[in-house]
Input
Amino acid sequence: MLQKPESGALPIPQAEGEKDGSRDGETQALTASQKEVPSPFLQESPNEDLGARREEGATASALTPKGARTLAAKALARRRAYRRLDRTVAELVQFLLVKDKKKSPITRSEMVKYVIGDLKDLFPEIIARAAEHLRYVFGFELKQFGRKHHTYILVNKLKPLEEEEEVE
Output
């Protein structure tokens, strides 16, 4: 069943059981925006020159199809870079946890060699994000132990449970 809005916009499809407006919030918001913005094609008079309308739309929108593709390609490249950075941070967190469990020293050279690789220019950002993940998710603080050799250690910041204290 189609409902004819008063503003001259396109008809809005409505299910038969939804006459009282019992749709979810997203659909209601979409419907409200459709009601407020009338279609430009329904408002133009039949005598108006359609060629002039197309030229006006072309100048108003400076984004050509080629420009849109370029913009989309840049956005895709940016998303891929962020995903790669996130994946590298997650791998570094796993690497740090394994090294801490084995009680072996954690050095910058090993982190760059085994995890970070060609993203070594971003080492400060990656290590900061990994330290934040370790702090909030696992309760470990990443401390730089030796400045000269760039050695790191993980320090547990969680308090022991009361039950464990009583048993010990």
Remarks:
- The beta strands are 2-3, 12-13, 106-107, 140-146, 151-156.
- Confidence is low (pLDDT under 50) at residues 7-50, 56-60.
- The two ends are 72 Å apart (CA to CA).
